[in-house]
């Protein structure tokens, strides 16, 4: 069992992942460490990290800083601030890869275009594209594709 514990101790780990808005308020956060045992401690950490990074320009590439004996990797997109925190002995490249994966996933979620929000109009568009049961499969697939991209 000793080797199992050594493996866990030496494997990379993340202490938290933070997504804050342009005012430093939580959009989504997840803590994986007990370094911040209370909600107040977590909020204080978030506020401090946000204040420390606010005036930086981390829009094109991720930035790295040491903060309270932790490595913090961060990047901004529009009004969202992404942070990944690891221990002071963590590999910055691994933490940066975690940040980039998180950043890319959120960017994909936010990249959808909203073409219509009125449910009556959407229902009307769907109703005008009804298919005959005998329609060729290629037309049915095309309709499904159109509906997915229309909504």
Instruction: Provide the succession of SSEs.
Output: HEEHEEEHHH
Largest sheet: 5 strands, antiparallel
Q: How many domains is the backbone divided into?
A: 2
Label the overall shape: elongated
Strand tally: 5
Query: How many helical stretches?
Result: 5
> Mind telling me which CATH architecture of the largest domain this is?
2-Layer Sandwich
Give the end-to-end Cα distance, rounded to a whole number of Å: 53 Å
**What is the highest CATH level, the class of the largest domain?**
Alpha Beta
Can you tell me about this structure?
This protein is of the alpha+beta class and 151 residues long. The chain folds into 2 domains: 2-110, Beta-Lactamase (2-Layer Sandwich); 119-150, no CATH class. Helices cover 44% and strands 21% of the residues. It is built from 5 helices and 5 strands; from the N terminus they run H-E-E-H-E-E-E-H-H-H. Strands 2-1-5-4-3 form a 5-stranded antiparallel sheet, with helices on both faces. A hairpin with a 2-residue loop joins strand 4 and strand 5 (80-87). The N and C termini lie far apart (53 Å). Mean pLDDT is 80; it is low at 136-147.
């Amino acid at each position: 069992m000793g080797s199992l514990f050594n493996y866990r101790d030496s494997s990379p780990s993340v202490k938290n992942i933070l997504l804050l808005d342009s005012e430093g308020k939580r959009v989504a956060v997840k803590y994986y460490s007990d370094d911040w045992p209370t909600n107040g401690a977590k909020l204080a950490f978030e506020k401090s990290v946000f204040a420390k990074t606010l005036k930086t320009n981390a829009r094109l590439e991720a930035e790295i800083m040491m903060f309270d004996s932790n490595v913090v990797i961060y990047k901004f997109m529009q009004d969202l601030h992404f942070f990944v925190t690891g221990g002071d002995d963590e590999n910055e490249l691994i933490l940066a890869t975690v940040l980039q994966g998180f950043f890319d996933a959120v960017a994909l979620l936010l990249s959808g275009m909203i073409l219509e929000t009125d449910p009556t109009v959407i229902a009307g568009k769907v109703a005008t594209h009804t298919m005959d049961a005998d329609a060729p499969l290629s037309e049915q697939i095309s309709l499904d594709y159109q509906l997915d991209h229309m909504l």
